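seq/struct pair 1
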Amino acid sequence: MQKSWTNQNINIHTLMERIIKYLEKEDFDLTVYQEEKGYTIIAENSKKYDLEGGISIQIEGEPNEFTIKMKESRREVAYRFPLLLSTMLGGGYLLLKRLKSNEKYIEFTRDFWQNVNKILLEMKMDEGEGVAKPLNRG
């Protein structure tokens, strides 16, 4: 999922730092990479969200036009038996774990975008300007 903003005059580095603070508060292990046009944050191992794998968050663009992209990177588990047989042999546990991970990812996604909007609003209020409004690009 990605969201884009235009005409905002946001310091991308400060935005990245505030997103990192939010992710640390949510108990993620973080790795941050600075790239040519922004930053990539890899968030893994949150006790609160208990996801299978991690989350990749890219922040790229310029102060007046930037995009935040988020995607889940799963640890792939190979299912070698048909679903019915695997549930009888303990595969039901793996299936249940994946379903719970999906629920937590949906919860994290909702919380993340709410917090990004809150961060942008705070940054705009710090500057004494209006409210940042996202321009969704699928």
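seq/struct pair 2
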Amino acid sequence: MNPEVTGLPEVDWHVLETLAARLEQPGVSPGSLAEAEWRCLPAAVQCLTDQEDWPALLQLRRLFRPLMARDSAGAMPVFLELSESAAVAAEKLGDWKELAGILGAYGHNLHRQGFHARAAAVFERSAQLYQDFGESF
């Protein structure tokens, strides 16, 4: 979407891809970055959610999936928000397999933060989705 035509903000994918690539470098951890460097991620989640750009939200989650799988990063609030938004996107698109995977990872991250009851509910939904299409959790 061209923001000049629509009046809507645009996601700067280059900045997000650069951030994701930087965070995959050896010796670089989420805590080593200044808070200002993270602002692009929640802004992108909000922008894509507001625009109901569900495929792009899933693309954004895929971009940061390697980082989100790490114990030290997966439980960060920004990644929990991204997971929640990506789950909504997958549900809106009817992509149940993607939703099951997102929920499984999200449940792990909730568990890491100590939200055990919430994690159990998310795991239950993920497991049910996997069962619905004949796969194991």
